């Protein structure tokens, strides 16, 4: 397989996954705000921080209010992390390889980008926001299912999986980091009802709430949630699961060792992690390390194949 | 209004399906009867079915416009096919083979001994002023002595039905994928017609092309690595590049996918560098190698000419083939055929005046209002004068252009191009058309069964280029004896 083609497949998958996760995050934040009492001032700023675009944001907007942040994260083409830009990049990558991916998948990706462009204004009002963001989420789920059901299990498919799972792992760590750091105070014995709601929102950002309940059968607790999102090998958006998938995809490719080595390093780190004793500050450090590890995986893929 | 052959306006032209007093030609009898049996609703239905098929199959061509940038347009297609009998086609086929064989010998001679110039059959000035002659190719001897492996020649008929060659495209001719797709669309839309006729298939083009390209491989291996080199997704023929690569199971590459090391061409794959044997290149000579030609080319591969000269890779068509794709050279083709093959041309040229010769130039200028004047090195119908339709100012402008640079112009009398019934709304109207068959040359020469029929959709127009509002038809070569 041509390196260029592999590169486009990989990035197409990453951008699609990024668009979906960003949409999920905004979706959940919107809902969370409705549940919190007026006195709790929970901002939109963490959403901006999540994709590390704080500076870009304040170059263009004065305050991180709801309208500005939504505009910035969804429709603002000047923000490289905006959903509209992720979809445009996904589309551009798909367009170049449209003879290689199943043609229905290209049509869906093209359509998803067009719809998102048309939805640009209505996403700003809360009433329409749910539908607009849901279209992005469902759109990517459809494309994922379509590719899953139609693509040959060859190198191209392996690169698709690599892109998707690496991006997902990255987004999961970002969500845990930002959510836990800025939204949530250190857990104390007397957990308030609102803490509960906020932790639930972390799970919901990752569509993990139901699965958490089924798996853990526990009340919402910080340590258990972190454990679930980071270490649970049965939950498909957990870090451990994503890493296993990355290793699985790489094993289908020539010369897998450098990539697998990097993935193993992160796995070791995760295994040694005791989430119950993880204080907030330490958690932030750990996540920094994990993200660095994911960057190393990406670099290994890049050097090895592209 | 459904199709009524009685009221079909034929005009003073040769019509492909209808003869004399609105009678279907023998080969078209069944088709015309069938079309007459269709109601308006049927016709609209078939037309819609065809355009849906084209959309679903994703048959597009790219147009570049100032306002909108590059856009994909659905391929324009007319559902009434054009029919040629096998007996007539066989003669055309022989003529094309003869012509391309001679043209390849001519190119090979120009880059080597130049005996045709020494023998004064063509003037040396022809070469000196040729924009497409590449001195870098001198002394090279490609396999089988073949330079233009893929040739697309444009044929037209005059009012008597005689086929003429209008031009030969020896650089990067396009259109063959549309010929193949037109047939697929017809089969989807009119399966019942295929039962009535014995229509010769066109499908084996991709495998003929693949076999021919395999033959060119410098390495003697079971499965040579063949790639199609495209300028990229913004090229107007990108659909075709992708289509042919797909049909042949070859990699579709852009310049940056290839790299030359020690005069060997490699492509960058996820497994590392992998040697390439044959490149079906769809990039013009000028852009193919920034080391050898245009330095600013972002499309080409630095060093590819070195690799080709060293004999480590084959290029189809060979660089420099365009020297014979020149409207002045065209005028000499009958002499070229006689010189190399010692045969009389089987397919005639359209009579062509070479403005570089004073007598002919004077004749052209005196009769400018009857002439079609063409620049020597343009394609796509650009920069032409159609004398009878032009304004006085345009004609005067061309007289000045000819006087300033006579080598760059040829002129031909205005031909009355043949027509065929074409579906306009729900009735059949006569529209002008041409035919582009494709000729593959390797150790052997083969010609497509028929070719791409292009039709000028505007009434009275003879401009068939899809970039200028042309459409297309499926071309049937039918066996009337079987």
How many strand segments of chain A? Answer: 0
Question: Could you tell me the strand content of chain A as a percent range?
Answer: under 5%
Taken from the alpha-carbon principal axes, the silhouette of chain A is: globular
- Major sheet size, sense and barrel closure of chain B: 5 strands, mixed
CATH architecture of the domain at 94-151 and 201-341 in chain B: 3-Layer(aba) Sandwich
Report the CATH topology name of the domain at 94-151 and 201-341 in chain B: Rossmann fold
- The CATH class of the domain at 94-151 and 201-341 in chain B: Alpha Beta
The overall pLDDT average of chain A reads 87
Helix fraction of chain A by DSSP (H/I, runs of at least 4): over 70%
Radius of gyration of chain B: 23 Å
Kindly state the number of beta strands of chain B: 24
The gyration radius over C-alpha positions of chain A equals 19 Å
Coarse shape of chain B: globular
- The structure class of chain B reads alpha+beta
Structure annotation, total helices of chain B: 14
What's the rounded overall pLDDT mean of chain B? 91
Greatest interface and its residue counts? A-B, 16 and 17 residues
**Order of strands across the main sheet of chain B:** 5-24-23-20-19
InterPro entries (chain B): ATP-dep_Glu-Cys_Ligase-2, CP_ATPgrasp_2, UCP005522
Protein name (chain B): Circularly permuted ATP-grasp type 2 domain-containing protein
Domain Circularly permuted ATP-grasp type (chain B): 81-456
Pfam families (chain B): CP_ATPgrasp_2
Structural account:
The complex is a heterodimer of chains A (306) and B (482). Chain A is mainly α and 306 residues long. Chain A folds into two domains: 1-151, no CATH class; 160-306, no CATH class. In chain A, 74% of the residues lie in helices and 0% in strands. Chain A has helices spanning 3-35, 45-50, 54-60, 66-75, 83-96, 103-118, 126-150, 155-183, 193-205, 209-216, 222-231, 239-250, 257-272, 280-305. The longest helix of chain A is centred in the N-terminal third of the chain and has 33 residues, at 3-35. By secondary structure, chain B is an alpha+beta fold. Chain B has helices at 29-36, 40-57, 86-111, 115-118, 124-128, 176-189, 191-196, 205-215, 238-248, 285-288, 304-309, 327-341, 358-366, 392-404, and strands at 18-19, 23-24, 60-65, 69-74, 78-85, 150-157, 163-169, 226-229, 251-253, 258-261, 264-269, 272-275, 278-281, 314-316, 353-354, 371-375, 385-386, 409-413, 419-424, 427-436, 438-441, 445-447, 452-456, 470-478. In chain B, helix 2 crosses helix 6 and helix 3 (86-111) packs across helix 12 (327-341). The longest helix of chain B is centred in the N-terminal third of the chain and has 26 residues, at 86-111. The model of chain B has no long low-confidence stretch (mean pLDDT 91). Chain A binds chain B through residues 1-4, 6, 95-96, 99, 103, 155, 159, 253-255, 305-306, and chain B through 58, 233, 242, 245-246, 251-254, 256-257, 267-272.
């Amino acid at each position: 397989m041509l390196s260029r083609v592999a590169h486009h497949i990989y990035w197409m998958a990453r951008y699609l996954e990024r668009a979906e996760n960003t949409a999920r995050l905004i979706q959940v934040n919107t809902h969370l705000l409705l549940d919190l009492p007026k006195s709790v001032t929970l901002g939109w700023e963490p959403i901006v921080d999540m994709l590390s675009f704080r500076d870009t944001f304040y170059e263009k907007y004065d305050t991180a209010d709801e309208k500005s942040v939504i505009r910035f994260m969804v429709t603002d083409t000047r923000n490289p992390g905006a959903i509209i830009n992720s979809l445009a990049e996904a589309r551009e990558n798909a367009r170049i390889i449209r003879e290689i991916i199943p043609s229905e998948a290209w049509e869906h990706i093209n359509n998803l980008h067009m719809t998102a462009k048309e939805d640009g204004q209505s996403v700003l009002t809360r009433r329409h926001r749910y539908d607009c963001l849901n279209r992005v989420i469902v759109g990517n789920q459809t494309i994922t299912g379509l590719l899953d059901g139609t693509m040959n299990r060859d190198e191209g498919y392996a690169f698709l999986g690599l892109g998707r799972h690496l991006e997902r792992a990255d987004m999961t760590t970002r969500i845990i980091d930002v959510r836990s750091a800025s939204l949530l105070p250190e857990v104390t014995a007397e957990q308030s009802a609102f803490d509960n709601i906020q932790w639930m929102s972390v799970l919901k950002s990752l569509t993990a709430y139901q699965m958490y309940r089924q798996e853990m059968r526990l009340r919402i607790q910080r340590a258990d949630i972190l454990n679930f999102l980071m270490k649970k090998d049965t939950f498909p958006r957990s870090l451990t699961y994503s890493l296993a998938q990355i290793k699985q995809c790489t094993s289908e490719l020539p010369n897998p060792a450098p990539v697998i080595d990097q993935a193993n390093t992160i796995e070791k780190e995760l295994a040694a992690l005791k989430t119950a004793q993880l204080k907030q500050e330490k958690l932030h450090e750990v996540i920094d390390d994990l993200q660095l590890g994911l960057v190393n995986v990406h670099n290994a893929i890049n050097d090895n194949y592209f | 209004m459904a199709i009524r052959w009685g009221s079909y306006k034929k005009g003073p032209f040769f019509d492909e399906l209808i003869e004399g007093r609105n009678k279907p030609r023998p080969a078209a009898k069944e088709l015309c009867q069938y079309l007459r049996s269709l109601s308006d609703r049927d016709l609209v239905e078939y037309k819609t079915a065809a355009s849906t098929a084209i959309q679903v199959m994703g048959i597009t061509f790219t147009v570049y416009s100032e306002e909108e940038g590059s856009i994909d347009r659905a391929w324009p297609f007319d559902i009434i096919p054009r029919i040629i009998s096998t007996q007539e086609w066989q003669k055309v086929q022989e003529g094309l083979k003869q012509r391309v064989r001679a043209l390849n010998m001519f190119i090979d001679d120009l880059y080597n001994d130049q005996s045709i110039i020494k023998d004064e059959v063509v003037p040396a000035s022809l070469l000196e002023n040729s924009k497409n002659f590449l001195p870098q190719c001198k002394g090279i001897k490609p396999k089988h002595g073949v330079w233009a492996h893929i040739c697309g020649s444009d044929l037209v008929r005059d009012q008597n039905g005689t086929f003429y060659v209008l031009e030969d495209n020896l650089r990067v001719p396009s259109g063959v994928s549309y010929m193949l797709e037109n047939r697929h669309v017809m089969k989807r839309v009119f399966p019942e017609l295929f039962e009535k006729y014995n229509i010769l298939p066109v499908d084996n083009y991709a495998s003929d092309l693949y076999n021919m390209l395999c033959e060119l491989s410098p390495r003697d291996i079971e499965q040579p690595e063949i790639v199609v080199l495209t300028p990229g997704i913004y090229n107007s023929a990108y659909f075709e590049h992708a289509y042919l690569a797909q049909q042949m199971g070859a990699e579709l590459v852009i310049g940056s996918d290839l790299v030359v090391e020690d005069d060997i061409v490699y492509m960058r794959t996820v497994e590392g560098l992998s040697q390439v044997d044959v490149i079906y290149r769809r990039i013009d000579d000028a852009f193919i190698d920034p080391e050898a030609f245009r330095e600013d080319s972002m499309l080409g591969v630095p060093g590819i000419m070195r690799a080709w000269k060293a004999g480590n890779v084959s290029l189809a068509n060979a660089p420099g083939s365009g020297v014979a794709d020149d409207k002045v050279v065209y005028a000499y083709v009958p002499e070229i055929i006689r010189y190399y093959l010692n045969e009389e041309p089987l397919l005639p040229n359209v009579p062509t005046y070479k403005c570089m010769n004073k007598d002919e130039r004077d004749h052209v200028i005196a009769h400018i209002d009857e002439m079609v004047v063409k620049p020597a090195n343009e394609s796509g119908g650009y920069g032409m004068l159609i004398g009878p339709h032009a304004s006085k100012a345009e004609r005067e402008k061309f007289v000045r252009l000819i006087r300033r640079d006579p080598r760059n112009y040829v002129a031909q009398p205005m031909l009355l191009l043949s027509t065929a019934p074409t579906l306009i709304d729900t009735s059949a109207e006569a529209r002008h058309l041409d035919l582009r068959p494709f000729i593959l040359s390797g150790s052997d020469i083969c010609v497509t069964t028929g070719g791409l029929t292009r039709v000028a959709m505007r009434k009275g127009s003879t401009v068939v280029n899809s970039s200028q509002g042309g459409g297309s038809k499926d071309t049937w070569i039918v066996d009337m004896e079987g």
